[in-house]
Amino acid sequence: MKTHGEIKRIKWDFFQFVEIPEEFKLYLWEYKDRAPLEILILRVLTYGSFEEIEKLYNLYPDETFKIALKYPEVKRGVKFWVKRWKDSSS
Q1: In the structure, what pLDDT confidence band is assigned to residue 3 with cuts at 50, 70 and 90?
Q2: Which contiguous run of DSSP H or E holds residue 36?
């Protein structure tokens, strides 16, 4: 974590609120039934299992791809699979 200098904030691209699927409610403890799409995707990419990430990608393919490449805290292996799924669907 930076303790000095300028801190760059990543701006959201997806503000819309979506229904939280039951299996992802664990990752969105501060929201009840609806959450911002960007937060939902980022939390599942960060904390989810491979099967959960694949299910999320099937629900929101373009949004998941964009967010996976946008945030540095998303692990390299997750980025690899999201890119691979994107390439195979094109």
Answers
A1: low
A2: strand 34-36
